Amino acid sequence: MKITLLSASITGSKSRLALEDAKKYLLKHAPVAEITLLDLKEMTILFADGRNYVDYPADTGILTKNLMDADIIVIATPTFQASIPGTLKNVFDLLPQQAFFHKIVSLIISAGSPKHFLMAENQLKPILHYMKANTLPNYLFIEEQDFANGTIINSEVHRRLNNLMEETIVLFDAYQTIWQKQKK
What we know:
- Residues 1-144 form the NADPH-dependent FMN reductase-like domain.
- This is NAD(P)H-dependent oxidoreductase.
- It holds the Pfam family FMN_red.
- Keywords: Flavoprotein, FMN, Oxidoreductase.
- It comes from Enterococcus alishanensis.
- The longest helix is centred in the C-terminal third of the chain and has 29 residues, at 155-183.
- The protein has one domain (2-183): Flavodoxin domain (Rossmann fold, 3-Layer(aba) Sandwich).
- It has 184 residues and is α/β, with parallel strands linked by helices.
- 42% of the residues lie in helices and 20% in strands.
- The protein is built from 5 helices and 8 strands.
C-alpha cells in the first residue's frame, strides 16, 4: 500500500504539521504502508502546460509520479480567499483527468475562520470527483485556534485526525475487496 501525503501550499506550516500527525496515525493503522510526504513548500513545481505528466522534469515529475502511483492520497490544504490555493489547483492541472481512479483521497482543511468549512464540499470534492477519486464522506477541518507553538493543541482534533486516518485505511481495504471481485 502506497500512501502519499500532500501539503498543498507554499506558505505557512499548518498543513505540514497536520500531515506529520496524520503519518503517525497512519503508521498505527497500516504499519507496513509505504508513506511519502510531499510538501510543495520544499519543491519547485512548474506550471501545468498541457504535457503528459510523465514528461515533467525534476520536482514536478516526482510530484506527479508519486500521486499517480499512490493507492491513498491525503491532501492537507489551507483555505485562501475562501477557496483552494492556486498551488493545489496547479497540481490537479498537471495530472490527467482520471488521475485518481481507484484511489482513496482524504482531506485535511485548515482555515482562520469556521466560515470556510464548506470549501471542501463546494470546491475541492467536485474537482476530486471529476478526477475519479474515491473520497471519504467526511474530512478534518482545523481552525487557527487549534494550533499553537508549531503543534496541534486541540485533543479533539487529534481524535478526529486519528479516526479519519483509520477510516481511510478501512475504506481502502473495502474498495480493494470490491475491485478484486470486479476483476473476476
